[in-house]
What does this fold into?
Amino acid sequence: MNLRSFLFIPGVILLLGLACNFPVGRATQQPGDAIQQTLMVTLFPTPISEATLPQIEPTREETESPPYFPKTGLHTLSPEEVMTVTPVEEQFFRYLTQTGDTIEALAGRFGVSPEQIQSAKGWLSPESLLPAGQELIIPNQIGLVENSWALIPDSEVIDSPSTVNFNIFTYVQEANGFLASYQEEIDQEPYSGAQVIEQVAIENSINPRLLLAILEFQSHWVYGQPSDAKHMDYPIGFQVPEYRGLYKELSLTVRQLTTGYYGWRSGKLTTLQFINHQQIRLAPELNAGSIALQMLFSQLYNQQEWKKVLYDPGDFLHTYQSMFGDPWKRAAQVEPLYPETLQQPALELPFAPGTTWSLTGGPHNAWGVGSAQGGLDFAPTSSQSGCYISPAWATASAAGLVVRSDHGVLVIDLDGDGHEQTGWNLVYLHLASLDRASVGTWVNKDDRLGHPSCEGGVTTGLHVHISRKYNGEWITAGPPLPFVLSGWLAHPGIYPYLGTLTKGDQVVTAKSDGSHTSLISR
It folds into this structure.
């Protein structure tokens, strides 16, 4: 792997991501039965039946399932229920919607305009989540695309409710491989191997099971030992000199996973470019989790190797299932992560009533490079510039339980169950350690959380970054679930960090210098 392959992320995403004010030292992030019915999409001209399922030693044709491909859901569905993308008179696709779909995203994936997507139910809202299982007719402008088998559920990529009872430390110790004795220093603090996995998973909201499986598949760290010095220094295989060691290699891993996941969710990612510069068109019917895996391994292997890793017997998904069992059965207990009925709870601006702050950053990465464009930045008005601890207070936008408070980050769990993986969570960044609310504190709306600062990242001036998660998934600030604070509605700009907040005929424009058009009062 060379430096070029590491740097391959869609250019605009990466260049803008480098400006994000996210933790650098800790995460090296330059700021991303029923369940399978919504994911198992194939290119069969007729509904799938049990007769199509290869029983022994399946061949490697696109019309046959890999041996690890789950039977549940795909082969027990009735012809009316099975999700297919089938040619209609060879000029159209018949597509059944998945949870999280929007018209805009589908238009991007299928390479059409939103107006070209038709439904028997009539008009489709361009800014709403579509109900799962709705039949759409979409012009076929891309032909038939290979590699269309769903690989993994979304909830196995995101740090979702399915990880609540998963104990990383117990798993690593019982596996008793190299990872169990591994230690690394991060920001002059000692971390065990399990702590590294936990930290990367929770900060980026990526499933720790997936991180462990990738690590085991690439270097045998979990159950065995690295075979040579290369696998010792670069356990995932990116081999970027500035990113040596487990923590930094995992930071590159989550960067690729989130770029794939949220790029697909938004409809902006439609092709993969491999390390040898080959490109392929992504199958438009896949789910975000499958695209995340495809994206990651496209940055580690050439196209031929990539296909073997993801679609041949005995490769990555075999490793994953041997370590953690059937991911689709777990997914059936927690998905959909992103139901079409989802609504944001009432939220207030993150500063006290009667005060005026500036909108210094419009919608941009919620956390790291590639994550949903779900973050907003606010700064208190001041005659002083640069980095210091402001005497002003950031306040709770809603009531909830503080479940994380360290290194400039504070997370409020709005359902109060103590789990960051479930329900709505608000993530604040750049809160100073001085006076910051501690873990276990119940806060009510408008309670003080901490002081704006530059802690928790690289930034040229103090501010507070706020973003939302639902069931572990970062939520974009624009449609279909716009960020609304004290009645102010967020609108993305043409580039990250631009954009506005509107309330009736009032408009506040994001300005990094805090100039008068960015001022907003409660």
